């Protein structure tokens, strides 16, 4: 069936739905089973078997397996089996780490998938786009992606961008009328909306006629989901680091093998020891641990209402030096309430908070009657020129739609204007609000078939377009002194941190062309509403904490300059010498001129989304790492240009979310601060386990190298080296990735984005601790072996245990940039449990007789343990009091 040729009522009949009620839950369930999910087929996932086998494709592991085979052929069955078991366990650990990371990323992808606004059982509700079914009534507005193929039933200036289908980037204007022509291509079906295309202007309603692979997008096999795995800058840096470490480890290992053979050790023993040492020295688990640490950190961010869409943002968060934040809804509650009305040249005061419809109007402490001149007309017009709806859930009033529209509905209800009253007006044409026009207009007809235009919007936009105004005696010519009085009212409300909305109207004839440029002039100015949007309680403290962290907070708003200044001062955001710029001033400045004063600017008022791009570029030219918030489709360029694009999870459009790297699920500024805190901590945790793993590996290599140089027997056998690599290195390193942030993490300045992995003394810490770990281990071996040269296993057990204990004690030193004594070790119980687990496994291989011949260990006494504990504590004690 060609849906574009059918009238709306025919579409409703065919799909058994009405646009006024939508589908029932029973119909939805039935159709979901019939048509399946509303998703496109994507590339097949790699099988778990292949992921598991991939753990053994590393060159050094393959060499080790070959060495194991040789050991078996030479009759060294115990060593061969032990090494094979350790390699398998290591493979399983790598597999589970990779699975955990993949599952976490899949969950993130699912959470950041687009949502659709559908009507079901007469109520509008948001559902994941994948749950949309054929027959669903869908509402779209500027910035939304259309979730499925829809037959448009209502268009309010709706335009869509369909380049994903047609290659044409020019928007297509949509209407709801049937098209009689046959065999039309999708780009000519202007009463249809197609899955994956973007609404760029206006709003509309449609009925879903195809989902998933039945859509036009599905038929041309376009994949909406990019399945290519991207690496973060940090992962790329660590991959490069891994290559360097492999070369260094292979050279050192080759040196150990050559020296060992030269000193008379059997070639086979040295070859196996060399390979084991190379495997231990190369931190092949590092990329997996980094991915797991990033994904676990991202899960913690989700619990704090911050959804990371791009893992690279986690690293960049720690570098942020400026947060450019929208005011409405991010710094404020986004629960607008009309607190003051200016009408007939007088100020009225309104009681009641939030969206509760209980409240009254007062003039000079006197309660007003509903028939106060022009008040009812003004509030009725505000309720008509409106796309919001009031709903009651669990006894509380909630707004479905824009909060400003909701506040005007509540204001109308407070004087007894029922929803039925404004529903009596027929809407002929809507000119939607957008950030450039700063107004919204509707052409309506009343019950007497009289037609007129209602306009609401920014007072500084409506007042110049007004020729008349209303007072108690009717319509009058708007004179200069009247405009001055209105300006005084606007300034007075702004100084009280009230946002101002003006309402105007114009009677028109039925033959007047329905063109905004023609209609929105010669208006009759009726009055002003002053709306209060209270600041969020937690924002003031969050701004202070950001300041202590070296991060500047900048407020961006479309409000009047005085309103913006009052709110910024209330939030302690604007210092005494801080500048406030408005949109007109920005228009007169170039980016370079703005750059000169940008560090003194804390508030941008009366700005459009287009100004945001200029602001981002000026800050970036000044060397700042910029986080920029936004919710509208016009915010997307600035969000994309910023270093950290942040979109609103509740009020944000799909386009803005796709352009962003971070989504605020609660639209709250304090969540940005929490995300920066978490981002800094994740990066520091990654540095911690790099420090731990590499220092441990340096220690292991040096133990063998020292032994060769001193012409000593091997202090560690291959199976012991592999055991240390698996148990002592792996578990504590993973636990370090779960460490809580240090107390001063938000009192440090932002990290330089060009900072290397080994910056801030990390390289020195790795080498110095690694050397001391190697030295104390070889000392322990020398003391025991030289005192008992006939019992090499005893000396090797002491060396093995000293190395393990030195690493397990050293791991607590890695938790702090300052000192091992700066933090309570029990803050990270995961680490405590990991160390206890490693210790128990160590005791098992030392004291369980069946494992002693496999791991070349023997019983140790109390004196042995005293020696081990003293020596293994030295690396941490020697450096534990210093920052270096």
TrEMBL record:
<dbReference type="InterPro" id="IPR018303">
    <property type="entry name" value="ATPase_P-typ_P_site"/>
</dbReference>
<feature type="domain" description="Cation-transporting P-type ATPase N-terminal">
    <location>
        <begin position="2"/>
        <end position="76"/>
    </location>
</feature>
<dbReference type="Pfam" id="PF00122">
    <property type="entry name" value="E1-E2_ATPase"/>
</dbReference>
<feature type="transmembrane region" description="Helical">
    <location>
        <begin position="270"/>
        <end position="296"/>
    </location>
</feature>
<feature type="transmembrane region" description="Helical">
    <location>
        <begin position="860"/>
        <end position="881"/>
    </location>
</feature>
<keyword id="KW-1133">Transmembrane helix</keyword>
<feature type="transmembrane region" description="Helical">
    <location>
        <begin position="56"/>
        <end position="74"/>
    </location>
</feature>
<keyword id="KW-0472">Membrane</keyword>
<keyword id="KW-0460">Magnesium</keyword>
<dbReference type="InterPro" id="IPR023298">
    <property type="entry name" value="ATPase_P-typ_TM_dom_sf"/>
</dbReference>
<feature type="transmembrane region" description="Helical">
    <location>
        <begin position="244"/>
        <end position="264"/>
    </location>
</feature>
<dbReference type="InterPro" id="IPR006068">
    <property type="entry name" value="ATPase_P-typ_cation-transptr_C"/>
</dbReference>
<dbReference type="Pfam" id="PF00690">
    <property type="entry name" value="Cation_ATPase_N"/>
</dbReference>
<dbReference type="InterPro" id="IPR036412">
    <property type="entry name" value="HAD-like_sf"/>
</dbReference>
<dbReference type="InterPro" id="IPR044492">
    <property type="entry name" value="P_typ_ATPase_HD_dom"/>
</dbReference>
<dbReference type="InterPro" id="IPR001757">
    <property type="entry name" value="P_typ_ATPase"/>
</dbReference>
<dbReference type="InterPro" id="IPR004014">
    <property type="entry name" value="ATPase_P-typ_cation-transptr_N"/>
</dbReference>
<keyword id="KW-0067">ATP-binding</keyword>
<feature type="transmembrane region" description="Helical">
    <location>
        <begin position="720"/>
        <end position="738"/>
    </location>
</feature>
<feature type="transmembrane region" description="Helical">
    <location>
        <begin position="791"/>
        <end position="809"/>
    </location>
</feature>
<feature type="transmembrane region" description="Helical">
    <location>
        <begin position="689"/>
        <end position="714"/>
    </location>
</feature>
<feature type="transmembrane region" description="Helical">
    <location>
        <begin position="830"/>
        <end position="848"/>
    </location>
</feature>
<dbReference type="InterPro" id="IPR005782">
    <property type="entry name" value="P-type_ATPase_IIA"/>
</dbReference>
<keyword id="KW-0812">Transmembrane</keyword>
<keyword id="KW-0547">Nucleotide-binding</keyword>
<keyword id="KW-0813">Transport</keyword>
<dbReference type="Pfam" id="PF13246">
    <property type="entry name" value="Cation_ATPase"/>
</dbReference>
<dbReference type="InterPro" id="IPR008250">
    <property type="entry name" value="ATPase_P-typ_transduc_dom_A_sf"/>
</dbReference>
<dbReference type="InterPro" id="IPR023214">
    <property type="entry name" value="HAD_sf"/>
</dbReference>
<keyword id="KW-1278">Translocase</keyword>
<feature type="transmembrane region" description="Helical">
    <location>
        <begin position="766"/>
        <end position="785"/>
    </location>
</feature>
<dbReference type="InterPro" id="IPR059000">
    <property type="entry name" value="ATPase_P-type_domA"/>
</dbReference>
<protein>
    <submittedName>
        <fullName>Calcium-translocating P-type ATPase, SERCA-type</fullName>
    </submittedName>
</protein>
<keyword id="KW-0597">Phosphoprotein</keyword>
<keyword id="KW-0406">Ion transport</keyword>
<dbReference type="InterPro" id="IPR023299">
    <property type="entry name" value="ATPase_P-typ_cyto_dom_N"/>
</dbReference>
<dbReference type="Pfam" id="PF00689">
    <property type="entry name" value="Cation_ATPase_C"/>
</dbReference>
């Amino acid at each position: 069936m060609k849906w574009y040729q059918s009238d709306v009522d025919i579409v409703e009949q065919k799909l058994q739905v009405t646009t006024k009620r939508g589908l029932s839950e029973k119909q939805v369930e039935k159709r979901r089973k019939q048509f399946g999910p509303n998703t496109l087929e994507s590339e097949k996932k790699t099988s778990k078997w292949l992921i598991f086998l991939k753990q053994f494709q590393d060159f050094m592991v393959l060499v080790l397996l070959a060495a194991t085979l040789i050991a078996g052929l030479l009759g060294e069955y115990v060593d061969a089996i032990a090494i094979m078991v350790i390699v398998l366990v290591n493979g399983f650990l790598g597999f589970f780490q990779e699975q955990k990371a993949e599952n976490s990323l899949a969950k993130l992808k699912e959470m950041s998938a687009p949502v659709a606004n559908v009507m079901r059982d007469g109520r509008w509700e948001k559902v994941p786009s994948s749950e949309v079914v054929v027959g669903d009534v869908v509402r779209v507005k500027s910035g939304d992606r259309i979730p499925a193929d829809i037959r448009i039933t209502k268009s309010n200036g709706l335009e869509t961008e369909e380049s994903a289908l047609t290659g044409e980037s020019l928007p297509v204007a949509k209407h709801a009328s049937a098209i009689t022509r046959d065999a039309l291509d999708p780009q000519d079906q202007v009463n249809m909306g197609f899955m994956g295309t973007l609404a760029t202007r206006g709003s509309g309603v449609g009925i879903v006629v195809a989902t998933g692979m039945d859509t036009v997008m599905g038929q041309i096999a376009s994949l909406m989901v990019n399945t290519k795995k991207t690496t973060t800058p940090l992962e790329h840096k660590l991959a490069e680091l891994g290559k360097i470490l492999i070369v260094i480890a292979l050279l050192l290992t080759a040196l150990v093998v050559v020296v060992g053979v030269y000193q008379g050790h059997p070639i086979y023993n040295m070859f196996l020891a060399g390979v084991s040492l190379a495997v231990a020295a190369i931190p092949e688990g590092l990329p997996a641990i980094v991915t797991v640490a990033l994904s676990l950190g991202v899960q913690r961010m989700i619990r704090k209402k911050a959804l990371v869409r791009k893992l690279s943002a986690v690293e960049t968060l720690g570098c942020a030096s400026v947060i450019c934040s929208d005011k409405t809804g991010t710094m404020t509650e986004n629960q607008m309430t009309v607190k003051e009305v200016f009408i007939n040249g007088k100020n009225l005061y309104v009681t009641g908070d939030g969206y509760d419809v209980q409240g009254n109007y007062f003039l000079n402490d006197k309660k007003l009657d509903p028939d106060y001149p022009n008040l009812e007309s003004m509030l009725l017009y505000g309720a008509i020129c409106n796309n919001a709806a009031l709903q009651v859930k669990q006894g509380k009033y909630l707004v479905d739609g824009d909060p400003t529209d909701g506040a005007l509905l509540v204001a109308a209800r407070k004087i007894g204007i029922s929803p039925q009253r404004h529903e009596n007006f027929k809407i002929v044409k809507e000119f939607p609000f957008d950030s450039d026009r700063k107004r919204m207009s509707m052409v309506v007809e009343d019950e007497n078939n009289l037609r007129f235009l209602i306009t609401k919007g920014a007072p500084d936009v409506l007042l110049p377009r007004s020729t008349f105004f209303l007072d108690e005696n009717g319509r009058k010519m708007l004179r200069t002194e009247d405009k001055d009085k209105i300006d005084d009212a606007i300034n007075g409300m702004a100084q009280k941190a009230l946002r101002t909305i003006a309402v105007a109207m114009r009677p028109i004839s039925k033959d007047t062309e329905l063109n905004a440029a023609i209609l929105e002039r010669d208006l009759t100015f009726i009055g002003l509403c002053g709306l209060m949007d209270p600041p969020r309680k937690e924002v003031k403290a969050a701004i202070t904490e950001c300041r202590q962290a070296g991060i500047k907070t900048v407020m961006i708003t479309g409000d009047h300059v005085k309103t913006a200044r009052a709110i910024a001062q209330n939030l302690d955001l604007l210092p005494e010498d801080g500048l406030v710029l408005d949109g007109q001033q920005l228009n007169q400045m170039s980016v370079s001129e703005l750059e000169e004063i940008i560090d003194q600017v804390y508030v941008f008022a009366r700005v459009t989304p287009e100004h945001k791009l200029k602001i981002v570029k000026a800050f970036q030219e000044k060397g700042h790492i910029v986080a920029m918030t936004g919710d509208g489709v016009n915010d997307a360029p600035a969000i994309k240009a910023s270093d950290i694009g942040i979109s609103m999870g509740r009020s944000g459009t799909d386009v803005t979310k796709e352009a962003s790297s971070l989504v605020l699920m609660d639209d709250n500024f304090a969540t940005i601060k929490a995300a920066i805190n978490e981002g800094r901590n994740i990066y520091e945790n990654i540095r911690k386990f790099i420090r731990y793993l590499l220092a441990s590996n340096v220690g292991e290599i040096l133990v063998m190298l020292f032994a060769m140089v001193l012409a000593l027997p091997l202090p560690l056998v291959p199976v012991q080296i592999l055991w240390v690599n698996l148990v002592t290195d792996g578990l504590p390193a993973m636990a370090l990735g779960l460490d809580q942030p240090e107390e001063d993490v938000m009192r440090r300045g932002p990290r330089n984005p060009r900072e290397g992995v080994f910056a801030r003394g990390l390289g020195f810490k790795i080498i110095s601790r690694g050397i001391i770990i190697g030295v104390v281990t070889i000392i322990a071996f020398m003391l025991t072996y030289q005192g008992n040269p006939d019992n090499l296993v005893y000396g090797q057990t002491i060396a093995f245990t000293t190395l393990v204990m030195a690493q397990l004690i050293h791991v607590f030193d890695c938790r702090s940039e300052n000192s091992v004594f700066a933090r309570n070790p029990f803050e990270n119980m995961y680490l405590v449990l990991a160390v206890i687990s490693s210790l128990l496994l160590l005791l098992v291989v030392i004291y369980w007789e069946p494992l002693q011949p496999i791991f070349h260990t023997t019983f140790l006494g109390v004196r042995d343990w005293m020696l081990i504990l003293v020596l293994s504590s030295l690396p941490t004690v020697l450096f534990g009091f210093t920052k270096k």
